[in-house]
Amino acid sequence: MERNLTVAQAQDAILNEVSPLAAQTVAVADAQGRILAEDVLSTRMLPPADCSAMDGYAIHSAASQSASADVPVSMRVALEVAAGGSADCPLQPGDAARIFTGAPVPPGADSVVMQEHVEADGEWVRILKPAPRGNNIRNAGEEMHVGDRVLARGACISAPVIGLLASLGRTLVSVVRRPRVAILSSGDELVEPDGSVEGGRIVASNSYTLSALCREVGAEPIYFGISKDCPEELEAHMRSGLSADCIVTSAGVSVGDHDHVKGVIEKLGCEIRFWGVQMKPGHPMVFGRFDRGPAPGAAGPFVFGLPGNPVSAAVTFEQFVRPALRKMSGFVTHFRPTIQARLRTALRKQPGRLNFIRVCLEIEDGEIWASSTGNQSSGVFRSMSEAQGLLVFPGADSELAEGSDVTVQVIDEGFFAGHERGFEGV
Amino acid sequence: MERNLTVAQAQDAILNEVSPLAAQTVAVADAQGRILAEDVLSTRMLPPADCSAMDGYAIHSAASQSASADVPVSMRVALEVAAGGSADCPLQPGDAARIFTGAPVPPGADSVVMQEHVEADGEWVRILKPAPRGNNIRNAGEEMHVGDRVLARGACISAPVIGLLASLGRTLVSVVRRPRVAILSSGDELVEPDGSVEGGRIVASNSYTLSALCREVGAEPIYFGISKDCPEELEAHMRSGLSADCIVTSAGVSVGDHDHVKGVIEKLGCEIRFWGVQMKPGHPMVFGRFDRGPAPGAAGPFVFGLPGNPVSAAVTFEQFVRPALRKMSGFVTHFRPTIQARLRTALRKQPGRLNFIRVCLEIEDGEIWASSTGNQSSGVFRSMSEAQGLLVFPGADSELAEGSDVTVQVIDEGFFAGHERGFEGV
Q1: Model's pTM, two decimal places?
Q2: Chain B contact for A331, CB < 8 A?
Q3: Nearest-5° Cα angle at A364, A358 to A365
């Protein structure tokens, strides 16, 4: 067991340990936002035949070469092809076929004239200028041929990817499994949100924050409730989480007489990789892995023992659990975005541990300004609920001056959304 | 009915028309990512009493004033208070109380000394330096008092906000209703993904793309299947969508003989606000509103008649439907983020309509480069599924030079996620 790692060492230790989960087959609609675990090869040619890109008239281009507005070429509308129709009947030179977007071009025709560019007159149509060969025709296979690799393993399944899979007739797809995360909390003082807080009890709100953070990153939280602060109950509680991919606990990881988490997980076969990270909030944090899970031969879940303080629990989840869950879900980008901002009001601290300061972000004349959300005590969760970012106050520093350039980890994904369209729109 | 608006005019017309939906009460766990429709006032004082921020010993600070490492002050550990315990028994001056994080400070004590800073010895503890008053004590009400407004109407319900609501004992919360979006598609050539594509049929993939785009923005798609290209079937189909907040159709909005959407919606009482936007892909697009819904007196749904081309349908959804759904959901940021990038390879077009070019984005030495995803024909959907952004090629321009600065609308939310942690981590 290593002790007192830096944030970077702790993140590296965790990310070296975890790997993407196995693949599973799911309905395409359930695959949204997940990572593709197969190369998708096309089983179709698209378009399936040469087809019209416009509503108009399919013609032999040669027959239009003398056309002009003064001396139009008149053609008989000999047939009509709708989208989904068939084009078995060949078009005779000098005839035209009424044709609609997506409809197959009849044999013989090699050009489509837009309906806006002709004069229709009953069974006849007047062509007003020469139509080049291939005009407004989408060639068979222009989008894909049978066997083309249209999607690569590792791609994220966006909304357009779902449409593409549908267009190939796929209803099922192989994706990386979502991590199942057992959420445990412990503390004699804790109650559920609908419980009584008489006598100084408080709500086990960490479980709700941590479950929501799991859902935000696409993992599946499984809540196992509150355990009392005694080794026996904690052990039974912990055993219930062993079938998950990850166990996330909060509280009980410090050095107090009531801090039983480390002892219990070691007894259950967890190898603790490290304890303690040089950061504030969040110093007393444990990371380890159970040597066996419920399946014979397989390794057990990872365990993240987070501090009990609500701010510390949320901040350590952001730094350590979230990147691990991203990697387990198959993403290659494991981290929150960071931005450079200017500091609204000076900050001070003791040199030593890296601090994460909860901040709001404002854009003024194209510059981003970061301001503390107020009381930075790790007991004050309100300032976490208002934070759009975590400002990185490096360990060695003791002061960040007003107006200085700072790095902020953006935890509010909505920060990037636009108040304005961002372009002229003409 | 206005015709041929610019992108900006069309977006403004839509956003002036739509407004946030009504509030509804949902379980807190279902409120994630939605917009709060009430001011949340605290019903609790937090912390509920003066309590310890550390594991340690609560003492009378005055009794520690002479303490030093050479001449420690020994105090008898007269009582113990755990988190969730009660602190009714007053502490006598000169005594200490063993105390744990979150536990109430006993009457009389005014300072907590960290356990790491004392020498414990059976029933006695030696204090090695003077402890200031208020040391390691979180004051009652430091986080909130009863009646404090802890969350404001309009806030987005992030994971920490869910934790904060839980800590207040809230299990239900009032949020802006999610838009219900009826998804319709029409075309004689269309089949569902599990249908046969014999004879040139193609899958109605637009419905799957558009449903997924709805889910991505937090709206609820309701898929009504495929209608044939005839006014009677289209009318029955459209009627089924009238109970939604929005109807999104694809295809049938151009000027072809099979383009019945405009006629049908007007017959059903839709006032068409505009038809046609000066953009490519996506010109033939209709926006309107039904003058009555299923409820007496209430206005009916908005209708977005999108082009049938898969690329055009997705791009017009992005520009027009998505901002409308964001506003209906209560967000004040309606638009996708835009970034400035440099263009990898020159682009050309006819001056006239604004073009949206599907691009990939790469970061090189801190600069973002945008490259076309290939064939920009609006028939080629593959290039949409690979696009991370839509490059804005202004209407008046005919060329964007290699290396020039361009504006890109980011449609892949994952673009901002970090490959690296983005700070040193020490």
Answers
A1: 0.94
A2: yes
A3: 150
